[in-house]
Amino acid sequence: MCNLYSNTTSQQAMRQLFQVSPEHDHLGNAEPLTAIYPNYSGPVVRLEENGERELVSLSWGFRTTSKSKKTGAIIKPAAWNNARDDKLTRAGLWRKSFINRRCLIPASSFCEAKGRNPATCFWFALKGSEPRPPFAFAGMWQLSRYETKEGPESAETYSVVTTTPNDIVRPIHPSRMPVILDPESYETWLNGNANAAQTLLRPYPAEKMEVVQQGEGLRADEGG
């Protein structure tokens, strides 16, 4: 499960890579993000109603109302930050977003932890001529409506699609890894039908990835 990633790609580089024109960039003055956690905000590329690509900042994790099992009282909303690829068309939480609201999630590395007390963090990135070249996770977005202690709330949220791990991720996380899309697949993920999008849900080639950092409790801007 991916619970931490970074996006240190410059705003101009994101516009170029994801073919977003400046007038459709709504990030403001975006700063490099070395640690994005669930419930934090991150940049997302999605389609406007007219079909143009836009860059926006959304909150990571679809929200749903949560209640205490003991008292039935409303507690902190659940944040569903990962969506399994084998449940996208079957689970009600994901189905409509997978069919109608897919998005690209810009990233430069992601973290998986192994062990406990303390855990060792492994940061994965793509190989390239530059350190941690930019890429995109396959994602979905929605307007989440949920209840809190203070009453009903809503937020535009996104979730990362995960798949089975490849050979470099599996020793660290044996069951899941984020779906990483090649640039030539961006258009299909954003505009293709559900069947076409499903063909993209596969592990990224391990030989194109590397571990760029590892250590106890490392953020993406620390270590080697």
TrEMBL record:
Q: Which family does it belong to?
A: Belongs to the SOS response-associated peptidase family.
- What's a Gene Ontology MF term here? hydrolase activity
Protein keywords: Covalent protein-DNA linkage, DNA damage, DNA-binding, Hydrolase, Lyase, Protease
Q: This chain belongs to which protein, by name?
A: Abasic site processing protein
Q: What class of enzyme is it?
A: hydrolase
The record's annotation in InterPro entries points to: SRAP (IPR003738), SRAP-like (IPR036590)
Q: What is its EC number?
A: 3.4.-.-
Q: Which domain of life is it from?
A: Bacteria
